Amino acid sequence: SQQGEEDPQALSIQEGENATMNCSYKTSINNLQWYRQNSGRGLVHLILIRSNEREKHSGRLRVTLDTSKKSSSLLITASRAADTASYFCATAPSGNTGKLIFGQGTTLQVKP
Amino acid sequence: DADVTQTPRNRITKTGKRIMLECSQTKGHDRMYWYRQDPGLGLRLIYYSFDVKDINKGEISDGYSVSRQAQAKFSLSLESAIPNQTALYFCATSELAGLTGTDTQYFGPGTRLTVL
């Protein structure tokens, strides 16, 4: 069964606006990762946040993690048309299983 | 050159046919994975392998088999394809996680399989 649930399923914004996507999960984790997928292509790793971290930044990306609520958010600031893609959260369950469990994804459309 | 490659990129086949999807990687990673992606369902793990002698079933292994021919090669087979196996298939790799345990995965470009 899938562990990550993402919200919203789809998001449409104008260029320059911020985009926020949320991810919830069910069990304890080692880390949570966000991936990006351009239409029909392979996923690309964006950012990883460990279970003992609360916030992380990478360029225009900001990720937060609340382990008490078992949730994470991905914020993309000053969005660009090139940010149009699907975004997936993936959790690495505790115990170093070597597996990731992916959410269903959020489809982001950034209009020029 | 791409670090993780998949062949073929597209395949159309008929019900009952045997199909093999191949994955090769030049990243030197020990761990390899096969996923399928269906619209609205995200990625689901089919099989994974942590080294050449290690094969493990994932969430949805029924109807599939795998072979880890070498550290760099991991093949997925559909012994008798059926229409509900129509999907986008991805191979991924990751390095053996040490104490830091990042589990970051690197994906191939995908194979679009259609079973008629």
Report on this structure.
The complex is a heterodimer of chains A (112) and B (116). By secondary structure, chain A is mainly beta. Chain A has strands spanning 5-7, 10-14, 19-24, 29-37, 43-50, 55-58, 61-66, 71-76, 85-93, 101-102, 106-111. Chain A is built from no helices and eleven strands. In chain A, strand 7 and strand 8 (71-76) form a beta hairpin. Chain A starts with a strand and ends with a strand. Chain B is mainly β and 116 residues long. In chain B, 0% of the residues lie in helices and 54% in strands. Chain B has no helices and eleven strands. In chain B, strands 2, 4, 5, 6, 9, 10 and 11 form a seven-stranded mixed beta sheet that branches. In chain B, strands 1-3-8-7 form a four-stranded antiparallel beta sheet, with no helix packed on it. The model of chain B has no long low-confidence stretch (mean pLDDT 92).
Main attributes of the structure:
heterodimer; A: 112 residues; mainly beta; six-stranded mixed beta sheet; five-stranded antiparallel beta sheet; B: 116 residues; seven-stranded mixed beta sheet; four-stranded antiparallel beta sheet; 11 strands; 0% helix
- How far is the N terminus from the C terminus of chain A? 37 Å
| Most residues in contact: chain pair | A-B, 26 and 30 residues
Task: Report the portion of residues of chain A in β strands.
Answer: over 45%
The biggest beta sheet of chain B, please? 7 strands, mixed
Contiguous helical run count of chain B: 0
Instruction: Provide the gyration radius of chain B in Å.
Output: 14 Å
Q: How many E-type strands of chain A?
A: 11
